[in-house]
Each structure stands twice: as C-alpha cells, then as structure tokens.
Amino acid sequence: MIPLLLVVVIDLIGFGIIIPFLPFYAETFGASPQKVTMLMVVFSIAQFIAAPIWGGLSDKYGRRLIIWITLAGSMLAYVLLAYSHTLYGLFIARAFAGFMAGNISTAQAYLTDITTKENRAKVMGFFGAAFGIGFILGPALGGILAGADPKNPNVFLPPISAAILSFIALLLALFLLKDTRSLIKPNSNKRITSLLEALKAPNLSQLILLSFIVTVVFASMESTFSLWSERTYNWGPKQNGYIFAFAGVCGVIVQGFLISRLVKHFGESFLCRFGILLISLGMISVALSYMQFHAYLSMALIAFGLGFFMPTISTLLVNIVSEQRRGWVLGVSQSVSSLARIIGPATAGVFFELLGKNSPYIIGGVCLLIIFIMFKNLIKQAST
C-alpha cells in the first residue's frame, strides 16, 4: 500500500505543477480565454474516453502494467508540453496527458485488490490524503518554477519538472509495486446505459444532477481563476500556485480532520447543503473581490465548501441504493463528474470572454444559491 501511495503523491505533484502556469503558457501564443479553457476541456474529454479503456485493460492484464504504461505516457506528455512551440502543440500535449491520466482510477482499483472490506475505507482515506498532499505541493512548486511575471513565465521548467517526477514515480512502480491481477471478471463498459438507468430513478437522478451542477461550477472556477487573477491583481503563475496550494490545505483540513467529527453532530444532509452554500458565497465573493486577501478568503470558502460537499454527496448517493448497487452508483457519479469537467470550462471560457471576467463567478454563485434552496427537501429525504 505504501509504495502505491508514494507513487500517487509524486505523480499528483507533477500534475499539480501544471495547474498554475498552463493558462499563462497558452497566452504566450496569443490564446483567448475561451481557448485557454479549451485546453482543460480536451484534457477532460481524453480522460473521459480513456478511463474505462485503462480500467478494462487493468482487469485483463493487471493493474501494475497499466500503471507503468500510463506513468510513462504522462512523462512523455509533459516533455511534449515543454517543447511545444505552437498553441496547436499545447492542445496535442494536453489531450495526450488526459488520455494517460487513467492511472489514478487504476491505482484506486489496485487498492481495492489489496484491501479487505473492513479496512478499505481507512485505506481510501489515505489515498485521499495523498491527493491532498499532491495538490498542495504541486501548484506551489509549479508557481515557483514558472515565476511571478504573468507576461513572461518560464514555460520550460514546470513541465520538465513534472516529467522528472513522473519518471521517478515510474521507477518506484517498476521496482516496488507487486502485481495484483484482479480475480473479478471484467465488466463491459456501459457508462451511457448506466447513466440513463440512473436518470430514471427520481431521487437518485436529482442527487446526480446536483453533483453535476456543483462540479460544473467548481470546474468553471478552476479553469478561469488564473485568468481572472491576472486581470484583477496582475498575478502570475507564482501567486496562483500559492493560492491553489492554500486551497489544497483547506481541503485537507476539512476532509482529514473536520468532516468525520461534524457528520456525527450535524449529519450528511446539513453538511451537503452547507457545502453548497459555502461554494456559492465563495464564487460570488470572487466577483466582488477588490483586495488580495479577499481572493484568499473567497478561495477558502470554495475549498471548504467542496470539502464538505464531495464526501457527503457520495454518502447520500450510496445510502439510497442497495448494497449491491453502491459500486454502480459511484461509477455513474464519476462519469457525471467527468462530463461536468468538460462542460464547466467550456461554458466558463465563453462567459469570461463575452460577458467579462466576473461573469462565470456570478452566474455560478447564483445558480448554486438557487440549488441550495431547491434541493433542501431532496437532500433531507436522501439522508433518511
């Protein structure tokens, strides 16, 4: 377990390095906000297509082999990014990186192979902590490597550093990971069929819709914040790296220390709605921000809100289906989340370019306020 978690941490640090500098890299080629966000879209589309493919192959040939292949592919994708000399090259590199991003779901499958039902939740908690560490250290390191100048970022060091980290993760995987060929027969991939089936169940479909909308709003912030901060505070990759790392710390505080205690006192229903409210207020707060500390406050609201929302919505989803259907409903939820990460950046880029830098945040915040009111009774029903 420890070798795999170490591989995941190192790999996610590399992934996080790219987050704060990529928009500025694209702008060196004259990319508009809409084209910048489309870089996130092509990554998510490729990931959406590739995840079930890698999952099926890992069932057939073993998790370790697929982790090796995807880590090697990620390393190559970062090298392509470092040596891209056109905007078209950036799109190719990000699409290839998205296709190779299936190693995370494969790593999760690896953990299910080596854990028992009794200790699986605890181990998955460690997996979530590994995510948190990667998303704290990665953006901070990426910002430092790219520098503070939004007009002249270092576009070579961040992706090359990410490639080196992927290489280190690959070496660890080659020498430390044991093969854990799954004993379960692979299931055919029927994500569209499963999604349509889920939409026929009233309460379930509404909870999935709720998760979809929140993820769209969050993805719209994630894909445009660097562009917004550049135009508002003249922030470059370094400053954006710090604030994304700060958001990672907030997320770890909630999911690592607060959520388990608060659920006992308030329940999933309350914390789910509270998380939606915090994200909504954070989005609107970004649009109203006029001082730099205000941006950090806004990001804290969003990060805390997401930290409350994500684990509680997952619990609510599995609570309204039978035990035999829990894996199925979480798979549907993951597919919906992937779609949201395609639609969110795509729409946010259009709003940002046509309606102004604050429009994605105002629209997203107001939508979540409406959702907060509309889904009150549904969330309570799901919790009971």
Word description of this protein:
It is a single chain. The protein has 15 helices and no strands. Helix content is 83%, strand content 0%. Residues 182-186 have low confidence and may be disordered. It has helices at residues 2-18, 22-27, 33-61, 63-82, 87-99, 103-114, 120-146, 157-176, 191-199, 202-233, 237-288, 292-319, 326-355, 359-374, 376-383. With 384 residues, it is mainly α. It has two domains: 1-178, Growth Hormone, Chain: A (Up-down Bundle); 190-384, MFS general substrate transporter like domains (Growth Hormone, Chain: A). The longest helix is centred in the C-terminal third of the chain and has 52 residues, at 237-288.
Task: Describe, in short, the structure shown.
With 384 residues, the protein is mainly alpha-helical. It contains 15 helices and no strands.
Summarize the helices and strands and which ones pair or pack.
Blueprint: H1 2-18, H2 22-27, H3 33-61, H4 63-82, H5 87-99, H6 103-114, H7 120-146, H8 157-176, H9 191-199, H10 202-233, H11 237-288, H12 292-319, H13 326-355, H14 359-374, H15 376-383
Helix pairs in contact: 1-7, 1-8, 3-4, 3-5, 3-6, 3-13, 4-5, 4-6, 4-8, 7-11, 9-13, 10-11, 10-12, 10-13, 10-14, 10-15, 11-12, 11-14, 11-15, 12-13
